[in-house]
């Protein structure tokens, strides 16, 4: 069965190596989130860079987007002074008390077709083609 016979496969996995030595592997499954089928996947790939070093990217993708982890990229700076760490913790606590940073599972499903106020029409913009 190819998956094309009766719709998407509920689970899948694959692994391959390309001719230019890129190794790829992934696995995933279909999940129903907010009444929509969503592919939830995780995997990795690695390649040899022009400098001869091997670079690896681990990732997962779900209804919140694509999330890579790359050890070879710069990492966030950790506060190195207690007062800075305390200020960061206070800001994060305040944001949480205001409802920001809540886990996606706590948020209701967005309503479909509700994209906020429409943008202004382009025909109402000034005509900049006229010379003064």
Which structural traits does this protein have?
mainly beta, extended, about 130 residues, five-stranded antiparallel beta sheet, 1 helix, single chain
Description of the molecule:
There is one protein chain. With 132 residues, the chain is mostly beta strands. It has 1 helix and 5 strands; from the N terminus they run E-E-E-E-E-H. It has one helix at 82-97, and strands at residues 11-17, 23-33, 36-48, 54-62, 65-70. The chain has a 5-stranded antiparallel beta sheet with strand order 1-2-3-4-5, with no helix packed on it. The model has no long low-confidence stretch (mean pLDDT 80).
H-E order: EEEEEH
The largest sheet is: 5 strands, antiparallel
Distance between the termini: 69 Å
Tell the overall outline: extended
Low-pLDDT runs of 5+ residues are: none
Helix content: 10-25%
State the secondary-structure class.
mainly beta
| Beta-strand fraction estimate | 25-35%
Gyration radius (Cα, Å) is 23 Å
- Can you count the beta strands? 5
């Amino acid at each position: 069965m190819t998956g094309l016979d009766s719709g998407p496969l509920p689970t899948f996995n694959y692994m391959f190596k390309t001719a230019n030595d890129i190794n790829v592997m992934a696995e995933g499954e279909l999940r129903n989130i907010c009444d929509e089928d969503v592919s939830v996947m995780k995997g990795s790939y690695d390649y040899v860079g022009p400098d001869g070093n091997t670079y690896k990217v681990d990732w997962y993708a779900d209804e919140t987007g694509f999330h890579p982890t790359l050890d070879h990229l710069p990492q966030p700076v950790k506060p190195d002074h207690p007062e800075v760490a305390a200020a960061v913790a206070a800001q994060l606590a305040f944001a949480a008390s205001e409802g920001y940073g809540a886990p996606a599972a706590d948020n209701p499903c967005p309503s479909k077709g509700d994209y906020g106020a429409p943008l202004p029409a382009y025909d109402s913009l000034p005509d900049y083609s006229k010379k003064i």
